[in-house]
């Protein structure tokens, strides 16, 4: 499933990140790389953006970016 | 030592992630001895200061806050250029101090691994160590240093912990060829361009595992608790609205007290000069040109200082990212970043601090789009114009029997500005500022107590930059506008026999009519006639370029009721109402007034804003573009209002 489909609070692991562009690269530089643990902390009032926790810090991203991240729970 | 045996001044670069405590360390190392400028041709801020290192001075360069050095953004290009020694005017750094947040070690170390690859000696300054230890985690600084093969110093800029040791370590590493403590797996590169990222993080995870012991104490627990309320779907929004209201109230109304005092002060200085200097061109230049110009610049200071007090507090405490998180959906609808909200709200008080506040938006395109639409927010300088028009033509009327027409019109003007801003933002983001949308990846830093020193330093730096960069342009244009209205001099009405008695009591009005500004008003009359304006309104439009509210005093002069009238004075209101064209028809109709109001909502009638846009975009192209497109939109808006109204049988 993609990160957007992940239920809130579930400890998941990143499997892959789709694409090769700038967004993919930026996500990986921020520490979101295959194998790392992630979870969704919360969503903004209109369901977008979402806040995730990765490598011990909080990162907000839009659903369009989260869609590129494949995870398993 | 250089060839002549002189001790060469060291150049040290300060690098680090945003929110890692870099600014606090920079302020603490350099004190107040810092210079802020822009790198040539770009809007990236260049900050330098002197750092006293046990007897020698080093030039400390504060690199922009960075997550990576892959040169995908302008900040990253500039930073990697400096580290390589390619940036003109800056010597290649002898060493880099890498600021690393201990509570967020892995991601902060990513930048450090990239710094290693530049083969410049790196000393790691570990910040937030007290917060880290407070959470019962432990970090073995020596082990971390051994893993990274570089000195690591735990510091606290506030208490001074580790600052001397940092200086020693920096002096020690200068001149030593550094070792990259891991092998970049080039074979991973074959799998894709991101193989290097894997190699770096693999090394980091290992180094952190060896040197850090995490307790079960959950990290960021306090922040999570605060966030439960502050980013709550209902309470979060309520608190956000309350904070925005407070900011708005402060710059809109509380700033007016110091602003009024400043205006009184400059008025008194002008009176003093009038009394104690001989009447003549020099006194007129000093009073109406220079004093009025300087006054027009410093009057913005209270708003700028107060707004930046709030912005610094909101940024430093970590709340700004939460506000952007809450509002991003709303703002992304028009293609803007969540952080555009505060600058736009502030622009309802005044676009100048609002435009300066866009600095919090990292993406250049998002930032420029926000700057370009900020002046559409109806600022406080437009209020006197709206008030005069409403008081003159729409007072005492009502809509649907209970709504005051004046209030409805006022609201309509605000709404018109917002609506046009949305349309323009939408178009700009698809044309001039078109780009693949920058990834919205925003760190939500843990809440922290703002550092008051950083807050105040930021406030005063902004105010000073405004005075230095925008102030000079504003002063220059003030003097030009003064000269346009002052020259050529009419013959002295006391010497030349007046043609009629009325003319003798209106030298000021006559002077304005015969001045270059008056002639310009005549010249543009054919252009503005379709909007319902005559040449006298044209003169007032030209004069109000100094500031929108000048329209009121210029109309007072040109209608010979004395320039001390304000927008609610009966004399001016009846003078406007009674103004006649040469063939005896009234100049003003309610439709003319409406057309003028629409023009003022949309036109770029503010040289101070243009001066600030010049400063913030570091180019004259953007202010010229802003002036042009807003004037065109304002012209069309007023044209549609006036001609449409006439076609519908009004006016």
How is this structure best summarized?
The complex is a heterodimer of chains A (73) and B (651). With 73 residues, chain A is an alpha+beta fold.
Helices and strands, with pairings:
The complex is a heterodimer of chains A (about 70) and B (about 650).
Chain A: E1 12-17, H1 22-29, E2 37-43, E3 50-54, E4 57-61, H2 63-66, E5 69-72
Antiparallel strand pairs in A: 1-2, 1-5, 2-3, 3-4
Chain B: E1 10-16, H1 22-30, E2 34-38, E3 45-53, E4 56-62, H2 74-84, E5 95-101, H3 105-117, E6 122-127, H4 129-134, E7 138-139, H5 141-148, E8 152-154, H6 163-173, H7 186-191, H8 195-211, E9 212-213, H9 221-230, H10 235-254, H11 256-276, H12 281-298, H13 301-317, H14 319-332, H15 341-347, H16 351-357, H17 364-373, H18 383-393, E10 398-399, E11 403-404, H19 405-428, E12 441-443, H20 452-486, H21 501-504, H22 507-514, H23 516-528, H24 535-543, H25 550-558, H26 570-578, H27 590-602, H28 607-617, H29 621-647
Parallel strand pairs in B: 1-4, 1-5, 5-6, 6-8
Antiparallel strand pairs in B: 2-3, 3-4, 7-9, 10-11
Helix pairs in contact in B: 3-8, 5-8, 10-13, 11-12, 12-20, 13-16, 13-20, 15-16, 16-28, 17-19, 18-26, 18-27, 19-27, 20-28, 23-24, 24-25, 27-29, 28-29
- Biggest sheet of chain B, in brief? 7 strands, mixed
Question: Percent of residues of chain A in beta strands?
Answer: 35-45%
Radius of gyration of chain A: 11 Å
Helical amount of chain A? 10-25%
Number of helices of chain A: 2
Strand order of the largest sheet of chain B: 2-3-4-1-5-6-8
Protein structure class of chain B? alpha/beta
Count of separate DSSP helical elements of chain B: 29
Content of β-strand of chain B: 5-15%
Q: What global shape of chain A is seen?
A: globular
Shape of chain B: elongated
């Amino acid at each position: 499933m993609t990160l957007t489909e992940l239920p809130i609070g579930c400890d998941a692991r990143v499997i892959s990140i789709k694409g090769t562009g700038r967004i993919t690269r930026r996500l990986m530089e921020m520490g979101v790389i295959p194998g790392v643990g992630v979870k969704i902390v919360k969503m903004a009032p209109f369901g977008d953006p979402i806040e995730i926790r990765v490598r011990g810090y909080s990162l907000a991203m839009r659903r369009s970016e989260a869609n590129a991240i494949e995870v398993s729970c | 030592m250089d060839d002549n045996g002189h001790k060469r001044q060291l150049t040290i670069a300060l690098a680090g992630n945003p929110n890692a405590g870099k600014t606090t360390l920079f302020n603490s190392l350099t004190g107040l001895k810092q210079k802020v400028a822009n790198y040539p041709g770009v809007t990236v801020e260049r900050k330098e200061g002197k750092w006293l290192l046990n007897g020698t001075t080093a030039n400390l360069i504060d690199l922009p806050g960075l997550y990576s050095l892959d040169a995908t953004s302008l900040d990253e290009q500039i930073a990697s250029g400096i580290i390589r020694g390619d940036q003109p005017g800056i010597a290649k750094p002898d060493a880099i101090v890498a600021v690393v947040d201990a509570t967020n070690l892995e991601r902060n170390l990513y930048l450090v691994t990239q710094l290693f690859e530049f083969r410049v000696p790196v000393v790691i300054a570990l910040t937030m160590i007290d917060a880290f230890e407070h959470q019962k985690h432990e970090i073995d600084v020596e082990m971390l240093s051994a893993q990274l093969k570089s000195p690591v110093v735990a510091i606290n800029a506030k208490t001074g912990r580790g600052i001397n040791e940092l200086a020693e370590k920096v002096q020690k590493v200068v001149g030593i060829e550094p070792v990259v403590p891991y092998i970049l797996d080039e074979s991973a590169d074959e799998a894709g361009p991101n193989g290097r990222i894997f190699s770096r993080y693999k090394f980091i995870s290992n180094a952190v595992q060896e040197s850090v012991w995490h307790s079960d104490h959950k990290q960021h627990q306090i922040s999570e608790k605060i966030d439960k309320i502050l980013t709550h779907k209902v309470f979060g929004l309520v608190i956000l609205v309350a904070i925005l209201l407070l900011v708005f109230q402060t710059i809109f109304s509380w700033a007016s007290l110091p602003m009024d005092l400043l205006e009184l002060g400059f008025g008194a200085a002008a009176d003093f000069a009038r009394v104690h200097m001989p009447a003549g061109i020099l006194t007129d230049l000093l009073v109406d040109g220079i004093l009025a110009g300087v006054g027009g610049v410093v009057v913005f200071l209270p708003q700028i200082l107060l707004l930046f007090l709030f912005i610094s507090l909101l940024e430093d405490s970590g709340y700004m990212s939460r506000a952007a998180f809450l509002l991003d959906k709303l703002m992304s609808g028009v293609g803007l970043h969540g952080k555009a909200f505060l600058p736009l709200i502030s622009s309802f008080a005044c676009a100048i601090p609002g435009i300066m506040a866009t600095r919090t938006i990292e993406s250049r395109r998002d930032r420029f789009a926000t700057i370009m639409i900020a002046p559409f927010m109806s600022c406080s300088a437009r209020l006197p114009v709206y008030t005069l028009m409403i008081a003159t033509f729409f007072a005492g009327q009502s809509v649907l029997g209970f709504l005051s027409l004046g209030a409805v019109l006022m609201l309509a003007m605000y709404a018109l500005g917002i609506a046009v801003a949305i349309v323009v933002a939408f178009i700009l983001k698809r044309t001039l500022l078109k780009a693949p949308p920058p990834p919205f990846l925003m760190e939500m830093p843990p809440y922290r107590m703002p550092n008051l020193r950083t807050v105040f330093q930021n406030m005063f730096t902004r105010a000073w930059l405004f005075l230095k960069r925008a102030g000079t342009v504003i002063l220059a244009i003030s003097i030009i506008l003064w000269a346009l209205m002052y020259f050529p001099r009419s013959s002295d009405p006391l010497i030349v026999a007046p043609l009629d008695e009325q003319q003798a009591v209106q030298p000021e009005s006559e002077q304005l009519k015969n001045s270059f500004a008056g002639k310009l008003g005549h010249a543009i009359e054919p252009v503005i006639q379709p909007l319902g304006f005559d040449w006298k309104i044209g003169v007032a439009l030209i004069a109000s370029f100094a500031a929108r509210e000048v329209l009121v005093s210029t109309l007072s002069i040109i209608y010979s009721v004395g320039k001390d009238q304000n927008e609610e004075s009966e004399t001016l209101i009846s003078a406007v109402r009674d103004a006649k064209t040469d063939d005896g028809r009234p100049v003003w109709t309610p439709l003319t007034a409406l057309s003028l109001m629409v023009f003022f909502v949309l036109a770029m009638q503010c040289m101070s804003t243009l001066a600030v846009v010049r400063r913030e975009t570091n180019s004259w192209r953007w202010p010229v573009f802003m002036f042009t497109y807003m004037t065109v939109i304002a012209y069309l808006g007023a044209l549609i209002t006036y001609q449409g109204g006439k076609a519908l049988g009004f006016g």
